[in-house]
Amino acid sequence: MANIVMFCILAVVILGSAILCVSTKSIMRAATFLLFVLFGVAGIYFLLDYTFLGAAQVSVYAGGITMIYIFAIQLVSKRTLQGLSERLHGGRMLAGCLAAVAGCVMVLLILLKQKFVSLAIPNEEVPMKLVGNTLMGSEKYQYVLPFEFISVFLLACIIGGIVISRKDK
Fold it and tell me: Where are the beta strands (DSSP E) in the chain?
């Protein structure tokens, strides 16, 4: 019962922070709300007793990625950020809502077609060794290649931040 209550609290925090993240006009507040979302996801990992994934979520995403966003925001000149207020138009709002509904329908269809829901019903716990082998394996349905692409992408972001921060002579 306590797990359900804690999950509901974390779900409300994640959804509320995500909505505030995309709807605020201040870019620093958006980064702060993103931090709350990432901490909430880490809380769900800890609630499921996946302590390694929770710790990785806190250190890599909540710590590293959010700091990269904040540094990028601070490196951009204030003159550039001042003109970024935009009003919501009805057409854009309707198009965004339709795209969100279409995305949700697509995800639901894929879940039902691939029978992920029926596979998730048994209360069998997935061992952490299987999760690690799946994340770091190089065979079919294993994720070492996307993991390496993400690491190269983050390296490119860091190099881009260094290049932007240099002053031209």
Answer: none
Biggest alpha carbon distance in the chain? Answer: 64
Dist. CA 154–CA 157, nearest whole Å: 5
Interior angle at CA 17, CA 11 and CA 19, nearest 5? 100
Alpha helices by DSSP H, listed for 24-143, are 27-47, 51-56, 66-75, 78-82, 90-113, 116-120, 128-136
Region for 96 from its dihedrals, namely left if φ exceeds 0, alpha if ψ lies in -120 to 50, beta otherwise: alpha
Residue 25 DSSP code: S
CA dist., res. 163 & res. 160, Å (int): 5
Amino acid at 158: I
Q: Which two tokens stand for residue 78?
A: 């204030």
Question: Left if phi > 0, otherwise alpha if psi is -120 to 50, otherwise beta: which for 85?
Answer: beta
pLDDT in tens, 67-116: 777 777 777 766 555 555 556 677 778 888 899 999 999 988 887 877 66
The closest of 54, 63, 53, 42 to 134, measured between CA atoms, is 53
CB 14 within 8 A of CB 38: no
Contact between residue 6 and residue 38 where contact means Cβ atoms under 8 Å apart: no
